[in-house]
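User: Good morning. I'm curious how glyceraldehyde-3-phosphate would be positioned relative to this chain. Could you predict the structure with it bound?
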Amino acid sequence: MMARTPIITGNWKMNPGDMASAVQLAADVAAQTKGLEGVEVGIIPPYPFVPPVRDALKGSGITVGAQNAFVEDKGAFTGAVSTTMLLSVGCEYVLCGHSERRTIFKEDNALINSKVLKVLSKNMRPILCIGESKEEYESGLNKEVCAVQLGKNLAGVTAEQMKDVVIAYEPVWAIGTGLVATPEVAQSVHAYIRSWLAGKYGQAVADDVRIQYGGSVTPESVDDLMACPDIDGALVGGASLVADKFARICRFQAV
Ligand SMILES: O=C[C@H](O)COP(=O)(O)O
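Assistant: Good morning! Here's the predicted structure, ligand included:
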């Protein structure tokens, strides 16, 4: 098994409110993570801010990704943005299946699967977000829900392609609520996800896939989460909008 390089990404969602603030935030994150080694740090801004954020991060080693992509390359698809366009402005990865896309924008598993395959076909990396709702969690169905999403969203993805896939386990009840999953709960689901991947692709492939945790990650919670053997990074929302908080998360101290 290769050592898995931890990956911390900041999903800015529909924030901050203007380009100047976005550039400032990116510059502050770059300054405050300077010299950091052994971890991949990424920022996932709204579409219009991708090129200026990319420029503000130049030389920092921080990568840039996109929050969404459409499955066609170009044409009459008003409001859509293609993977080709994202690649041309320097995006290295694309979030697929974020719960806000699943619920607010009604994306179903088949569409998410098409997006994962499209992103991979462009040699970009999908960050596939999965996770259960509060009701499903309370009914003890978290692993079953993840298994269904993995099966449907990774349909047609080969073992060879899995080296470019990052999975983000994001329990919906933990997103933006301050209710971070305990390290025990998160580790147990991450271990389950890895065993599911081993069942489909073999243990060697599963051992190399990075699995992020997402949902109310803060400087206070990151160290204990990152100390878990199957937690390989964090997908950070709210705390990624505050440079010193995000930088501290990137400097997690797993013991
Ligand atoms: O993509 C990020 C997640 O939705 C987590 O968001 P949050 O850190 O604000 O809970």
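The domain at 7-26+41-251 is CATH 3.20.20.70 (TIM Barrel). The first strand starts at residue 7 and ends at 11.
Let me know if you'd like a different ligand tried.
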